């Protein structure tokens, strides 16, 4: 029996922008992520902005990872080294497992764009309660780099040899046609 190829399977994705200064009208990074995820065929669940405060971030993300309908959380902002940048400190304790390769690969890809400044990115990813979380820098360019260079393929069930979709949604079950 021939193996049925995996079709595209849309995911429910929430977007969180961490910023002390941006409003929704000025959130070009959040806009870029929303455009990219919807263009890829995924569904935007919620979008919000919170101040760069560990507990405010944890409160929002904790609600989202407790909601079984949320598959992925994209967080932009707060991954640098300024005194208020605290996204990694806020999110890491919530993770069940870290996706170490994400931060490594992100910095490798972004090196071609921004050179050694990439070492100042603390981009990271991980799994929490069967929800995949990506923490990205706040720049629009960095969000586009992460999406197009890594995230898009890893959220596509057709990407081989592996992706995160089966882990998040379970194995694909082709429709049964009655005769």
TrEMBL record:
Give the record's GO CC terms: cytosol
MoaB/Mog domain location:
14-158
One GO biological-process annotation of the entry reads:
Mo-molybdopterin cofactor biosynthetic process
- GO MF annotations for this entry? GTP binding
Its annotated pathway reads: Cofactor biosynthesis; molybdopterin biosynthesis
Q: Provide the family line.
A: Belongs to the MoaB/Mog family.
In Swiss-Prot or TrEMBL terms, this protein is called Molybdenum cofactor biosynthesis protein B
Organism field: Marinomonas communis
Taxonomy of the source species: Bacteria, Pseudomonadati, Pseudomonadota, Gammaproteobacteria, Oceanospirillales
């Amino acid at each position: 029996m021939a193996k049925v190829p995996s079709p595209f399977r849309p995911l429910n994705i929430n977007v969180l922008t961490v910023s002390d200064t941006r409003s929704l009208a000025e959130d070009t990074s959040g806009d870029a992520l929303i455009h990219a995820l919807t263009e890829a065929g995924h569904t935007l669940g919620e979008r919000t902005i919170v101040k760069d405060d560990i507990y405010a971030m944890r409160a929002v993300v904790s609600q989202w990872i407790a909601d079984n309908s949320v598959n992925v959380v994209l967080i932009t902002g707060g991954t640098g080294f300024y005194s208020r940048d605290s996204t990694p400190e806020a999110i890491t304790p919530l993770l069940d497992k870290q996706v170490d390769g994400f931060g490594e690969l992100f910095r490798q890809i972004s090196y071609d764009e921004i050179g050694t400044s990439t070492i100042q990115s603390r981009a990271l990813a991980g799994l929490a309660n069967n929800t995949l979380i990506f923490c990205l820098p706040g720049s629009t360019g960095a969000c586009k780099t992460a999406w197009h260079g890594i995230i898009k393929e890893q959220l596509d069930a057709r990407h081989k040899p592996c992706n995160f979709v089966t882990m998040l949604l379970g194995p694909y079950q082709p429709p049964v046609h009655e005769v």
